[in-house]
Design goal:
Layout lengths: L1 H22 L8 E9 L19 H15 L5 E9 L4 H10 L4 E5 L2 H11 L4 E4 L16 E3 L4 H14 L4 E7 L2 H17 L2 E8 L11 H12 L8 E5 L19 E3 L4 E3 L10 H12 L5 H20 L4 H8 L15 E2 L6 E2 L2 E4 L4 E5 L29
Parallel strand pairs: 1-2, 1-3, 3-4, 4-5, 6-7, 6-8, 8-9
Antiparallel strand pairs: 10-13, 11-12, 13-14
Helix pairs in contact: 2-9, 3-4, 5-6, 9-10
């Protein structure tokens, strides 16, 4: 009798399982989302520090973790997520972007310079949605903005404002600004000048450290720079802090402990503003860090985090809007209804006037998170996060219809 009951139950269970596996179709609203990730690689000199060497899967590792997170949440709704990564070069970028579009990919994440991001946004066209995960150019959020382009990476203006707020909060308002001679250094220097004016700091003196092109070409190159720094920083006007502007990675790391006058260093060396850092542990970030490290066998880089955020933005928008249409997703992402938890102490959202993700910026000494901006007391009528970067009234972006 007992055996008969067991056999009957087993048969019923098998029949029910068969119904679930074969007779019940997938929900009609189930969506298949495919995301393309383009990373534009250029020849570069080895970094000053071995710790700053670029991993082969930079950015792509963030895509892998972000896609897994989207699959976890999307499975409850019947949605599936996949992605394709393509390392490319400036010469092949347009063809690779076109290849993704021709393959039906309508959501693309780009790791590259400003001109690379614009190339992809223009090639993808209005029926696609492009995420900028690396380029800091203010112009991308201003006069060169595109209606199909959203920015997860913070702009130079946001990074400079984040550091400036902390320095002003510390009452370190007299700055010695030392900038590099390369074009990106000059653009970042302009962002710091704007921040100083915005928050009431004074740049008491500016100096330019010329890049001779040889500081990292040999093992002895760093010795030359180290010897130059003390002489270069002699006889400066009285200052509270040295603000280093060195996107080209030439001299800033040598300023601490080598400058003639003992002062704290911030900017491209010393205390740095970043979108994320491997030392960050607050607000649940330890769990994120451990998952990333277990999966990839290395620490997270800001580019990895930015791509992960882009993927999570996509996953959240698909789940909430029940759509894979780029225009629908864009409208939802830019609406007041959108928000995303991003391990930074508060939900992140997008600015509707230029497509920039409003987000806290971490200040790190490369060992710990020293502080997080916006700092206490820096208010804004909409959100304290809008005290970082270009505000709506200042925006030169006309593509968003605001």
């Amino acid at each position: 009798m007992i055996r008969s009951l067991i056999v009957a139950a087993t048969c019923c269970f098998g029949f029910a399982t068969g119904l679930l596996g074969h007779a019940i179709p997938s929900p009609a609203w189930a969506l298949d989302i495919n995301v393309g990730v383009l990373r534009v690689d250029r020849p570069v000199l080895a970094p000053v520090s071995r710790f700053d060497r670029r991993p082969d899967n930079l950015g792509f590792a963030g895509a892998l973790l972000g896609n897994q997170d989207n699959e976890t949440t999307g499975s409850f709704l019947g949605h599936s997520f996949s992605f394709e990564t393509r390392p490319t070069t400036p010469e092949n970028l347009e063809a690779d972007a076109a290849g993704l579009v021709e393959a039906g990919v309508r959501i693309i994440v780009v790791l590259g310079r400003g001109e690379d991001v614009l190339t992809v946004a223009d090639k993808a066209g209005p029926e696609a949605l492009v995420f900028n995960a690396a380029a800091p150019e203010v112009e991308l959020r201003g006069e060169n903005c595109r209606p199909n382009l959203l920015h997860v990476a913070p702009s130079r203006a946001m990074l400079a404002d984040a550091l400036a707020q902390f320095l002003v909060w510390k009452k370190w308002t007299r700055w010695l600004l030392i900038s590099g001679s390369n074009p990106d250094d000059k653009r970042l220097a302009e962002a710091y000048r704007r921040s100083a004016t915005k928050f009431g700091a004074e740049i008491v003196e500016e100096r330019v450290f010329e890049d001779t092109g040889g500081s990292r070409r040999s093992d002895s190159g760093h010795v030359l720079v180290q010897r130059q720094i003390p002489v270069f920083t002699q006889e400066t006007r009285e200052h509270n802090v040295v603000v280093a502007v060195d996107e080209s990675d030439v001299f800033a790391l040598y300023l601490p402990f080598h400058a003639w006058t003992p002062r704290p260093v911030a900017g491209s060396g010393g205390l740095r503003p970043v979108s994320f850092h491997a030392a960050h542990e607050a607000w649940g970030a330890t769990q994120f860090q451990r998952r990333f490290e277990k999966q990839n066998g290395r620490y997270v880089h800001p580019e990895d985090y930015n791509v992960w955020v882009a993927f999570r933005v996509i996953g959240e928008a698909v789940a909430r809007s029940s759509s894979d249409n780029a225009a629908v997703l864009r409208d939802y992402i830019l609406s007041d209804a959108f928000e995303l938890a991003a391990f930074k102490g508060q939900k992140v959202t997008f600015r509707s006037w230029n497509g920039q993700l409003r987000q806290p910026v971490l200040l790190t000494d490369s060992k710990i998170t020293v502080s997080v901006s916006p700092q206490e007391g820096f208010l804004h009528h909409r959100s304290p996060l809008d005290s970082l970067g270009i505000d709506e009234a200042e925006s030169a972006c006309s593509a968003f219809g605001n």
